[in-house]
Amino acid sequence: MARYIITSALPYVEGVPHLGNFVGSVLPADIFYKFMLLKREDAIFICGSDQHGTPIELQALKKGVEPSELADKLHHEVKEVLEKFECTFTMYGNTNSKENELTVDEIFEALIKNKYIIETQSELAYCNTDQRFISDRFIEGTCPYCGYDQARGDQCDHCGHLLTPKELIKPHCVICNGTNIVFKETRNLALDLAALQGKIEAFINGNKDNNWSKIAVTHSLGYIKRGLEPREITRDLKFGFKVPYKGFEDKVFYVWFDAVIGYIGITRSWSDAWERYWKDSETILIQFMGKDNIEFHTLMWPGILIGSGLGFVLPHTIIAYEYLLSKGIKFSKSRGIGLNLESAIEIAHPDYWRFALAMLLPETSDTDFSVERLIEIIDNDMNNNIGNFAHRVLSLAKSIEAKRPEALTGASADLVKKVNSLISAYEEHFEKVQIREALHDVLEIAALGNSYISATEPWKYGNANGSKELNEIVYTALDVVYRMAMLLYPFVPASSARLLEVFEYADEPSLARAKEGIVESVHINKELVKPIFSKLSEEQIRKLYSLK
RNA sequence: AGCGAGGUAGGGUAGUAUGGAGUGCCCGCCGGGCUCAUAACCCGGAGAUCGGUGGUUCAAAUCCACUCCUCGCUACCA
Q1: Which domains does chain A have, with CATH numbers?
Q2: Which of A46, A71, A269, A361 to pair with A542, CA 20 to 30 A apart?
Q3: Distances (CA, A) of A91 to A6, A24, A161, A269
């Protein structure tokens, strides 16, 4: 039987993720994983914090703390906020772990043995005061183009020019503020992607039809066409895993290298069962990411896995998202301002964000986010269509004890037939990882339900029990609400659960039960009947606009 | 500059891979209906030479070429 590993690109922990970070990989991965749960598939959902790299080391230096302490603190903050957004990871780990280091070392040794690691040379700035190499972002000076005196070695934030450290006028070291900087040759180790190119290309061509995002295919083949070059896997930094190789002991692995391997390392932190997933040919690995992460997952990561020859499964499906572009409100992670997940949760329940972001998933092109659009989705699609449908039906059912009719007739039979075909469409869309479309199928079910109520006019029968027609209408409508509640689970888990609670015999949500519908007479808990959603209040809207 | 994405009714979008009547969705507008429901819901209607030009084709929003706009990235940020 097939087994699934679902991964989301690992958030880099330099701050609280913003909506763009969330929508670009963790959210869709979580929604998809919850669909796997609905289907009762054998699936694990792996994610975690990417902790190494220059920004963290620099931040730690500025704060005067150990990088690993800072990275762990940020890791816990990010984990907590993602869990508040109802993400149910099998394991949310981190890259700076023993298990990951072990995995990185094993894979590195295998790559050495298989001769896929080569040496490179480059010139790098060296601070004589600190006695260490300093990366581009550790150097500041005056921009030769605009004269801005706090330009960094990689780019000037003032005029946007890309720079090299050598171009800076009066360069100084960010760590010690000194100017005793020289340029020295440094050696690094690199993954020989050129040697692996044929195998990587075969991997892409052999898997790209497994529902890969179009952008993932075009980007990957574009890189292949231009030819792959060796990619460095070590850096002259302090924070990271030490390189266990003679002559390179004072260096660490480059952050991207241990980040992708982190998928395995994190699974290893989760359970001894990790090999059952990662080394079983039946395993289907489905990876979610933003478009800027494509090359790491379709070129370097498969290159590492293939080159190691250790029998790890390769990605089966690559799902890459375009960007969510904010209009009017800032998304910023590093600066901690604007609409990040912390500020979002203070404004509305996570389900509201999950729903709206699922509607806005940038599956095929960059997508605009605006407060106006958010209001439209929440008020109209979520509240008026789905929420109101559920509530009007449950309100009807409060005074009528619906019994299962012997057979459905006319409009009722027609509705159930259409709902069944929409459930099939929902399943098919999920299987093709078209999450936005699957949500549209649920919206369509609610719209059909609303039409059905209008057409059958249950209020005509008065509120007395006994009429066969009325019984059939209420039963059928309740049945649709019940199914819809189950289908909502991947998107809005808390609201789905609240809706299902009203049905006294409700089970855990499952796709099989959604297809089957209500099998017995319906008992609802009248006390629990209340609207599941509401429109955004003026207060909420005011808060949203205040984030500009 | 390099790389990438987009231009479809008043606004916002889906559709473009595998060409087949301008098909769909949300908002807005016009007209009607309903009162179970959260000023919610339902039905009908108006409104588009699918950015432009040229080409391929029996047939183009969809394929090709050129062109004009818009936006994003080029920070180890998704």
Answers
A1: 3-116+192-321 (3.40.50.620), 117-188 (2.170.220.10), 370-538 (1.10.730.10)
A2: A361
A3: 11, 19, 41, 8
